[in-house]
Structures are given as C-alpha cells and as structure tokens.
Predict the structure of Radical SAM protein.
Amino acid sequence: MDRYSKITNKNKREIVLLKALPCAWGKCRFCDYIEDNSRDRESMITLNRDVLSHVTGEFGVLEVINSGSCFELPKETLTDIRTVVREKHIQKLFFEAHWIYRSRLDEMREFFGIPIVYKTGAETFDYHFREHYLNKHADFRDAEELSRYFDSPCLMVGIQGQTKEMIQNDIRLLKQFFKLGTINVFTNNSTDVKRDEELVKWFLEEYRELEHDPSIEVLYENTDFGVGD
C-alpha cells in the first residue's frame, strides 16, 4: 500500500493516505475503500506518524486523505498533521469530508490556522441516482447548495445506469459552481456496481480536453494520485 506521493502535473502538492476510524456513513453502494479503516487507535497513530514523516513541504501544499472523512482521523493524528504543517511551512491543506459534516468544516480551519480546500464525494448532481442507487446519503438538492459548503466535488463517471446526459450535466455544473473538481472514472471493485465500458469510452473521447484543464483532475485509475493499492 503506497501512502505517500507527490502530485506534480496539476495543483502541485504532496499527498498522504492515512488510516482512520470507520466511516461515519460507510454504506455507499459503490465503495469498498472503507476496508482500510481500523479501530486499533495505537497502530493507526503509529502508522500515520510514519507516513507523515515523509512530508517535505516542497510545494507548501499537503493533501490528506483517508477512507472516509478527515473528522474520523484520530485526534493524535490531527495534532501530528498540525505539527508537520508548522514545521514544514505548509500554507494550504486539502481535506475530504462527507456531506454530513458540512456544519463542522470550520473546526478544522480553526485547528490548523491555514486555508483548507474541502473536497467531497458528490459522485453526481443527479439526486435520484446519487441517493437511490449509489446510496450516498448526501441529500443536497443541487450543485449550488453543495458549493455553499465545499470547494471541490469528486464526481464518478462510467457507471452502469448513468447516461451521457447525466455526465454532461454533471461536468457543466462542476465548471459553473466550483473552481476545482475531480472526476473519477469508475473501476470495478468488490461491490455490485459495475463499469459501463461504452460510456467510459465515450467520456474519454468527448472530454479529452479535460487533461489540459488546470481546474479538473481526471483519475483513470484509483491510484492515479500515487497512493492506494
């Protein structure tokens, strides 16, 4: 499992994949990432401390991810991150949080004392597909409502049941309401959600220009950020 990497093509930053307590929701239909969660606090703290020791501060920007939300990281790990921020002169953090934490985002901003870019797994702006098929438990009604809380949504494309029109609308709304975003091309995993190969092929051809869009990062594989397994 790779847990430290550098992103050097868009929005240069270091990135760490840490271990955390179980995801507070943990019922998204498409997600098996939560298998990286743990209840062994001591081992998590030790592992996370080792991963954080690789941070150099080279870009002044650090992204911290885990298999859930940043609020599920142990308090000791949050303190370790703050120490790294201060010692390595980190000027900006990227964190990810589920919609259910939207009222608590300022807690992290106050704790770290530097700007935080909040990512969130929106998956799609199509309410019915997100809530009734993907079981995301993120009941925002539209992109504008989500943008009141979060800076950078993560969308998924290439799932059986999606349509070209849904993807086109998602990308249009992403660019309309957000300065940053991530698009994940779905990869089959241990869940019953399946990849639509024809839809993926269409997306890759139709949105080839996104490779050159500095505001949108496209992940063709789960490990494209250099972390994960």
